[in-house]
Design brief:
The protein has 54 residues and is mainly beta. It has one helix and five strands; from the N terminus they run αβββββ. β1 and β2 form a beta hairpin. It starts with a helix and ends with a strand.
Length: 54
């Protein structure tokens, strides 16, 4: 689970928009860009090339 203070400063690397944290799936979602960023060992992988599109 990500720290709340970290969630407040994280932004989508593509559009700089707000991210939604999905606690159940442990992932970050940008609805504007339609990208999902995975989290590994409590570290968000914020690389656009690594993101999953939905």
């Amino acid at each position: 689970m990500l720290d709340e203070s970290l969630l407040e400063i994280l932004a989508c690397p593509q559009c700089r928009g707000e991210l939604e944290y999905d606690k159940e799936e442990d992932k970050l979602i940008c609805h504007h860009c339609r990208l999902i960023f995975r989290i590994e060992d409590d570290i968000p992988i914020m690389l656009i090339d690594e993101a999953q599109k939905f």
